[in-house]
Amino acid sequence: MNVLKTNLQDVRIVETDVFGDHRGFFTETYTKNKFIEAGIDNDFNQDNQSLSVEPGVLRGMHYQLAPYAQTKLLRAITGVIYDVLVDVRKGSPTYGQWEGYILSEYNHRQLLVPKGFAHGFVTLTPNVNVAYKVDGYYEPKADRGIAYDDPDIGIVWPMPLDHLVLSEKDQHHPQLKDAELNFTWEAK
């Protein structure tokens, strides 16, 4: 297993060992003791999965307020996504910064999204299945988000904004400067 640092403080890309042959491949997507040895020690308690049937589906930018915040470990089971994180932890050296990552059924990469990050992705292919583990349960009263097109953040999506397919909720998140946040970065 290989764990890669990113430009965002505390975000990691996880590459598990993939064993392939003429039949296909095998990989252990999550093995608790191997993750702990790699410095990732979360008590994941729920698995989620989404299906997006067409390219351009944007889900995000979501987070849950503390104490209901969630760490996520996600991957694309089928298809390809452009996954984006924004650091919303006040005091973080990367506060308000974003970074995007390609996750796909081909690269087998997983993304560790720590608490205090707004998260979203856009599908680049049809029939994208995304699976992710979380270490906290969904709490509707703590559900929040920031605008995917916030000009102060400047996320560069890989397709024109007028080609995106969003839920009603995701079309109306506030800009970061107006968002309800209660995260504070703590140096490790």
TrEMBL record:
It catalyses: dTDP-4-dehydro-6-deoxy-alpha-D-glucose = dTDP-4-dehydro-beta-L-rhamnose. Keywords: Isomerase. Catalyzes the epimerization of the C3' and C5'positions of dTDP-6-deoxy-D-xylo-4-hexulose, forming dTDP-6-deoxy-L-lyxo-4-hexulose. Its EC number is 5.1.3.13. The keyword Isomerase applies. PANTHER family: DTDP-6-DEOXY-D-GLUCOSE-3,5 EPIMERASE, THYMIDINE DIPHOSPHO-4-KETO-RHAMNOSE 3,5-EPIMERASE. InterPro entries: RmlC-like, RmlC-like_jellyroll, RmlC_Cupin_sf. The keyword Metal-binding does not apply. Gene3D superfamilies: Jelly Rolls (2.60.120.10). It holds the Pfam family dTDP_sugar_isom. This is dTDP-4-dehydrorhamnose 3,5-epimerase. Pathway: Carbohydrate biosynthesis; dTDP-L-rhamnose biosynthesis. Homodimer. Belongs to the dTDP-4-dehydrorhamnose 3,5-epimerase family. It comes from the Bacteria. The gene is rfbC. One of its GO terms (molecular function) is dTDP-4-dehydrorhamnose 3,5-epimerase activity.
